[in-house]
TrEMBL record:
This is tRNA-2-methylthio-N(6)-dimethylallyladenosine synthase. The keyword S-adenosyl-L-methionine applies. Residues 183-413 form the Radical SAM core domain. Its main location: cytoplasm. Its EC number is 2.8.4.3. It catalyses: N(6)-dimethylallyladenosine(37) in tRNA + (sulfur carrier)-SH + AH2 + 2 S-adenosyl-L-methionine = 2-methylsulfanyl-N(6)-dimethylallyladenosine(37) in tRNA + (sulfur carrier)-H + 5'-deoxyadenosine + L-methionine + A + S-adenosyl-L-homocysteine + 2 H(+). One of its GO terms (molecular function) is tRNA-2-methylthio-N(6)-dimethylallyladenosine(37) synthase activity. One of its GO terms (cellular component) is cytosol. Residues 416-479 form the TRAM domain. Binds 2 [4Fe-4S] clusters. One cluster is coordinated with 3 cysteines and an exchangeable S-adenosyl-L-methionine. [4Fe-4S] cluster 2 binds at C197, C201, C204. CDD domains: Radical_SAM. The gene is miaB. Monomer. The lineage of its organism: Bacteria, Bacillati, Bacillota, Clostridia, Lachnospirales.
Length: 479
């Protein structure tokens, strides 16, 4: 394909989506096959994913596009096309990407045909894109979170326009559906139910890089899950930054609890999970649906962020310590076998020793089954970044260590309470350390290791929990 031909094909592209991308996947495939023939081997593509489940899901879509366009998926970064799907929620996520770009540059020197692309949340920040334009000239393609569906078009273009291509959108109101996806697991899958976030917690960059909240139509969600089930999926994870506000802006509004009830009716689907719930709008209706529907897993992730009402207010979380405690108690009473997990930030601007003690107090009262603990990271452009009283690292670090110790102690105690019980596990893979064992996930999200082989992967088995190892179990199979 030469440049004239390329321009003709560009000209002939349909303007409507997803037809336009189907067209570009075909065009790209012609090119990829041609290059493969020249090289005498398949063209490979490698995606590295940073960050949360949203990004993991996006990467499956991106890989689906690449495979349809003729690339062979590879785990090896010495590939013909390498894509970093980035995260910017905390600064260390950004630093990891910059660190690895240097390594990619070395690989590219060995393979001049290599195309390096960056996408995801970091790319939505203009300062990041400026930095890459200036100091990482070897990057070929940059796009954002709102236009991942355009990968085939962008990459096709890059093969002919020999310069860095940047296409980052500020926001979007469109949801492009029905493009291919390459699932990482055959038996479980994430399913987006909404995109973006409107909560603007004062420390958080997600609303700026993921845009405003948009819910998908329930019919599209159900159809996607039905297709997944037909393809062997038994467990789905419904994804959104705040699933509890699902459906509020739909033409025919619908609550998240109603959506769950509809999803639970899908025959052949065995397990339903969801992430994440914001405490401010977790309804009694949702608690009741969780309690009454056995397909909904016994796990709720309910980020606390801080136990201090004063700090929660500064964080714009819209609930206080007492409200969180009351909510946690209600959930634990209604669903006693539920495992409650959380996220906590230490060192938010202005956090005093008394505030931190309040966080410890909530941790001790609620007794979380597990908790992700984070050191506050200043994100440019967020209100908290402009607050004056940033807490110095030497104050934050000891607090973080104290919290971690408390969280781990409680989580080990919680985990031991179920020893001797019989539960169902979905086998996810082989044990990394012992080839005679498999690892399975319990409904409450805790892992159990027990004897088995590769043929068990993807099946639901009954196991007895023999021993707790702090945050996972050793078990024996009953069925
Ligand atoms: N939408 C989800 C969270 C997404 S980000 C929710 O509200 O629950 C995942 C976690 O990262 C957050 O719960 C928070 O604990 C943490 N986090 C977000 N911004 C952060 C920052 N600037 N510094 C440290 N941790 C942060
Ligand atoms: Fe960030 Fe808050 Fe939105 Fe979660 S709810 S993504 S913490 S702004
Ligand atoms: Fe990171 Fe973006 Fe998720 S910033 S946590 S990958 S939404």
């Amino acid at each position: 394909m030469d440049r004239t031909e390329y321009l003709q094909r560009l000209e002939a592209a349909p303007s409507l989506e997803p037809d336009r991308q189907e067209y570009f996947m075909d065009q790209l495939k012609t090119l990829v096959l041609q290059k493969s023939r020249e090289l005498g081997r398949p063209m490979t593509a490698c995606i590295q994913t940073f960050g949360c489940q949203m990004n993991a899901k996006d990467s499956e879509k991106l890989l689906g596009i690449l495979e349809q366009a003729g690339f062979k998926a590879s785990e090896d970064e010495a590939s013909d096309f390498v894509l970093y799907n980035t995260c910017t929620v905390r600064d260390n996520a950004n630093q990891r990407v910059y660190g690895r770009l240097g390594y990619l540059n070395n690989l590219k020197k060995k393979n001049p045909n290599m195309i390096i692309a960056l996408c995801g949340c970091m790319m939505q920040e203009p300062t990041v894109v400026e930095k890459i334009k200036k100091s990482y000239r070897f990057v070929d393609l940059i796009f954002g979170t709102h236009n991942i569906f355009k990968l085939a078009e962008l990459l096709f273009t890059r093969y002919f326009e020999k310069q860095m291509i940047i296409d980052v959108w500020d926001g979007t109101d469109k949801i492009v559906e029905n493009l291919p996806a390459e699932r990482k697991y055959s038996f479980k899958s994430g399913v987006n139910i909404m995109y973006g976030c409107n909560n603007f917690c004062s420390y958080c960059i997600v609303p700026y890089v993921r845009g405003r909240e948009r819910s998908r139509n329930p019919e599209d969600i159900i159809k996607e899950i039905e297709a997944l089930v037909a393809d062997g999926v038994v467990e789905v994870m419904l994804l959104g930054q705040n699933v509890n506000s699902y459906g509020k802006t739909l033409e025919t509004p619908m609550t998240f609890a109603e959506l769950l009830k509809r999803v639970a009716k899908i025959e052949g689907l065995e397990r339903i999970r969801f992430m994440t719930s914001h405490p401010k709008d977790l309804s009694d209706e949702l608690i009741a649906v969780m309690r009454d529907c056995p397909k909904i897993c016994r796990h709720l992730h309910l980020p606390l962020q801080s136990g201090s009402s004063r700090i929660l207010k500064q964080m714009n979380r819209v609930y206080n310590k007492e409200q969180y405690l009351a909510l946690a108690k209600k959930i634990q009473t209604e669903i006693p076998d539920l495992s409650l997990t959380t996220d906590i930030i230490v060192g938010f601007p202005g956090e005093m020793e008394e505030d931190f003690e309040e966080t410890l107090d909530v941790v001790r009262k609620v007794r979380f089954d597990s908790a992700f603990t984070f050191i506050y990271s200043k994100r440019t452009g967020t209100p908290a970044a402009a607050m004056e009283n940033q807490v110095p690292e030497e104050v934050v670090k000891p607090r973080f260590d104290r919290l971690l110790k408390e969280v781990q102690k409680i989580s080990a105690e919680r985990c031991s309470k179920d020893v001797g019980k019989t539960m169902t596990a979905l086998v996810e893979g082989m044990d990394d350390h012992d080839p005679s064992m498999v690892t399975g996930r319990l409904s409450n999200n805790i892992m159990v290791h027990f004897p088995g082989d590769a043929s068990d992967i993807g099946t639901l088995l009954t196991v007895r929990l023999l021993e707790s190892r702090g945050f996972y179990y050793i078990g024996e199979r009953i069925s």
